[in-house]
Amino acid sequence: MSSTLVVSPAAAPARKKRGQSLVELAITIPVMSILLLGGFDTTMLIWDKLVAGYAVRQGVRLASELGGRQTNPTATQAAIDQKIVRNVLAVTKTWGYGTLMELDIYGATRADGVMQASDYQDQFNGSGNPLPSGLQTLTLERRYQTPPDETAIGIRLVWQFTVPAGSFGNMTFTEYSVMQVAPVLN
């Protein structure tokens, strides 16, 4: 006695459709995952860049208001700089995935405000501690407040973005902002 398996013509296409759906799903899931994680990483990067921009603007605004020796005859350079550094660090605490590497307060000499090695500058590490004393050259006496020679003071952050989902490598950025020191009118 022999047995014969009879497959209905309607069952074969259903099996093929199921197989096709699994292949499509296997292709679609990794692509969608990459897009989703990339979107998340990009959103976090944009947020941290916005915070960095806000931090330098807040820092330079305070540095401009505090000025130099003319408006702070009894203050020390370290005390003025620490107020500025604390202000910037307070803003950067809202970073999601950013890490501050270096903070610089400098007297900008270029028209575009980019910090040069020859500029007078006070440099701090990511925790707000001064870097070696030879790099603290923007004294209060060098922060001129008499028009038309007011010092253009700048704040620069060097920071690293650590990618949360790992869709692209870690990146280092530099943000800066420059303002004229508030003038003292005689």
- Biggest sheet strand line-up: 2-1-3-4
Series of secondary-structure elements, N-terminal to C-terminal: HHEEEE
Number of strand segments: 4
Radius of gyration: 29 Å
Instruction: Sketch the major β-sheet.
Output: 4 strands, antiparallel
Mean pLDDT equals 90
How many domains is the backbone divided into? 1
Which word captures the global form?
rod-shaped
Strand composition percent: 15-25%
CA distance, first residue to last residue: 119 Å
Structural class, from secondary structure content?
alpha+beta
Poorly predicted regions are none
How many helical stretches?
Answer: 2
- Helix share, percent: 25-40%
Brief overview, please?
The chain has 186 residues and is α+β, with helices and mostly antiparallel strands.
Which properties best describe this structure?
186 residues; 19% strand; alpha+beta; 4 strands; rod-shaped
How is this structure best described in words?
The protein has a 4-stranded antiparallel sheet, covered by helices on one side. The protein is built from 2 helices and 4 strands, in the order ααββββ. α1 (11-66) packs antiparallel against α2. The mean pLDDT is 90. It is rod-shaped. Helices cover 39% and strands 19% of the residues. The protein has one domain. It is of the alpha+beta class and 186 residues long.
